[in-house]
Specification:
Number of domains: 2
Distance between the termini: 21 Å
Radius of gyration: 18 Å
Helix content: 25-40%
Order of helices and strands: HEHEEHHHHEHEEEEHEHEEH
Strand order of the largest sheet: 5-4-1-9-10-11
Bound molecules: ligand BV8, zinc ion
């Protein structure tokens, strides 16, 4: 059965995306970087310990990624996800691990940013709201309160914003049929890697669209080992 057939007239679609969704836009995946940036390990830069150790280096890491994202465009995978949202409306929800903002640039609106955004900055101490920021920070920027500003992303070892996980939970638990599709993710990072299990626990039919291996591939009903940019328009029956 196709996803359309599983969805029927009242089924809901939950999509989870990872770095592989943006690969065809030219953004290196975490695996692609081999978990490295220069001679630094990604986890060491994307962590509170890394920021405490060398905030200036961490800001250079994020500033260079901001530059990289600005030079990229959404690809057919982002557009297919925005198109199926258009068709399904509130029967659709996108949870993304990506921080590159390409889903929103492709027109996605019902987006839960599980790990925050590269293009926002917040204070590490006061409750000043996070703000849009695409600047390249050579030096560590300071808040009016005197504390350091940091990228508005969730680092390794940090809790996700509970409201994002509750939104996913609520969508998964609503009555009716559920289809879960994970796209371009190696299933290495938790708690996103566990969504397929909670979806299956609710009777969802599950798809993984991923080039190469994924740690949680065995949990999916269907696995398509192909680029998201070609698989999604076909899977969602939308124009590429
Ligand atoms: C938390 C924002 C509570 C920052 C990111 C031991 C066991 C289990 C869990 C843990 C553990 N030890 C620690 C943990 C928790 C930890 C974790 O999961 N660690 C892993 C490494 C084991 N998780 C956390 O810390 C989370 N918080 O759990 O809080 C807690 C606290 C402390 C201790 C325990 C629990 C917070 C995690 C969020 C980290 N922030 N990003 C930034 O980006 O700078 S993670 C970042 O890396 C991404 O957001 C993403 O989540 C992850 C990369 O994964 P993917 O997106 O899947 O990318 P990847 O490159 O791996 O895979 C891409 C795939 O696409 C590949 O398979 C590739 O082949 C494929 N592909 C390539 N091209 C294409 C394609 N597919 C389709 N089409 C293509 N064209
Ligand atoms: Zn402040």
């Amino acid at each position: 059965m196709t996803i359309q057939e599983h969805l029927g007239s009242d089924g809901r679609l939950l999509v989870l995306t990872g770095a592989g969704t943006s690969a065809e836009s030219g953004i290196p995946t975490y695996r692609g970087m081999g978990g490295l940036w220069g001679q630094h390990r990604f986890e060491d830069l994307a962590s509170p310990e890394g920021f405490a150790r060398d905030a200036r280096l961490v800001w250079r890491f994020y500033s260079e990624r901001r530059e990289g994202v600005r030079a990229c465009e959404p690809n057919a995978a982002h557009r297919a996800i925005a198109a199926i949202e258009e068709r399904l409306g509130d029967r659709f929800l996108l949870a993304t691990q990506n921080v590159d903002g390409l889903h929103q640039r492709a027109g996605s609106r019902r987006v839960i940013e599980l790990h925050g955004s590269l293009l926002r900055t917040r204070c590490e101490r006061c409750d000043r709201p996070a703000f849009e920021d695409e600047a390249f920070h050579d030096a560590v920027p300071r808040c009016d309160c005197g504390a350091r500003l940091r990228p508005d992303v969730v680092w390794f070892g940090e809790m996700l914003d509970p409201s994002t996980l509750q939104a996913v939970e609520r969508f998964q638990s609503a009555p009716g049929r559920l289809v879960f599709v994970a796209v371009g993710t190696s299933g290495a990072v938790w708690p996103a890697a566990g969504f397929v299990r909670s979806a299956k626990a609710r009777g969802a039919v599950t798809w993984l669209v991923n080039v190469g291996a994924a740690d949680n591939a065995r949990a999916f009903d269907h696995v398509l080992d192909e680029p998201a940019g070609t698989a999604l328009p076909r899977l969602f029956e939308v124009r590429p």
